[in-house]
Amino acid sequence: MRFLLVEDNADLAETVLARLSLDGHAVDWARGLDEAEDHLAVAEYDLILLDIMLPDGDGRDFLAAHRRARRTTPVIVMTARSAVSDRVALLDTGADDYITKPFDFLELSARIRAVLRRGAAEALPSQSFAGLTFDPQQAALRFEGETRELRNRELRLFEILISAPERIFSKAQLCDRLFSASEAVSDNAIEVYVGRLRKKLDGSGARIETVRGVGYRLTRS
Questions:
Q1: pLDDT at residue 63 is higher than 90
Q2: CA 213: distance to chain centroid?
Q3: SS (H, E, C) the chain
Q4: Which fold does the domain 2-122 belong to in CATH?
Q5: pTM above the 0.85 mark?
Q6: Any idea where the domains of the chain sit in the sequence?
Q7: Contact residues for 138 (Cβ-Cβ < 8 A; gap 6+)
Q8: Does the first or last residue of the chain, that is N or C, have fewer Cβ atoms within 10 Å of its Cβ?
Q9: Mean pLDDT, range 80-88, rounded to an integer
Q10: Average pLDDT of the chain to the nearest whole number
Q11: Which H, E and C letters describe 61-80, residue by residue?
């Protein structure tokens, strides 16, 4: 999945980036609120990790504006404030969760998984297409009594394709959703993940079709 990290502490940001990359996520890093808005103007994110005290403003104001604009991207606030009243205020402003600095990265990963599970349950409990059932919470495909598990980017890629069966997605569109702006992505990166998904769809009623010179789409076998 693709995340936006808004954090001005370079040491902390680099550690978070390294940890989340190990978990299979693509992460863009904004050092302030203006940079965060620039990222949001050109990319879609599955989650925002937001610091409060930033060099060009208060993350709480950013969060409030994010919700006033009816943006539904989940937000986990990273804060040094530990008072109950501060945490309640963050949740009331629109945070989906918070974590108090300094934090353990195992706890951060757990909170991210919990927030994403809640979002998946609300937005996409399961989807069916051509006799195949996709369960995003279990990261699995099911058909004809078989269950095939999906790894992180396979899961994200299939979420995109099944969100609009028969729609053609270009390589550029898929790269934008699967990889961060700072990642060096080879020309065949999407082909690799498409190839992996095709193997897991083998025997089902669905397939990924290559539309030469245009992109890929999920269609019926």
A1: yes
A2: 27
A3: CEEEEECCCHHHHHHHHHHHHHCCCEEEEECCHHHHHHHHHHCCCCEEEEECEECCEEHHHHHHHHHHCCCCCCEEEEECCCCHHHHHHHHHHCCCEEEECCCCHHHHHHHHHHHHHHHHHHHCCCEEECCEEEECCCCEEEECCEEEECCHHHHHHHHHHHCCCCCCECHHHHHHHHCCCCCCCCCCHHHHHHHHHHHHHCCCCEEEEEECCCEEEEEEC
A4: Rossmann fold (3.40.50)
A5: no
A6: 2-122, 124-220
A7: 149
A8: C
A9: 82
A10: 90
A11: HHHHHHHHCCCCCCEEEEEC
* Count of all residues that appear for the chain in the document: 221
Short-list 132, 147, 120, CA closest to 1: 120
124-220: same fold as 2-122?
Answer: no
Tens digit of each residue's pLDDT (9 = 90 or more) over 173-187 = 898 888 877 666 776
Residue written as token pair 């898929």: 174
Q: 10 Å Cβ neighbour count for 180? A: 22
Average pLDDT, integer, range 136-158? 89
The interaxial angle of helices 152-162 and 189-201, nearest 10 deg, is 80
Please state, in angstroms and rounded to a whole number, the distance separating the CA atoms of residues 122 and 35.
30
What is the CATH class of 124-220?
A: mainly alpha
Read off the pLDDT band of 57 (50, 70, 90): very high
Q: What is the per-residue pLDDT for 118?
A: 74
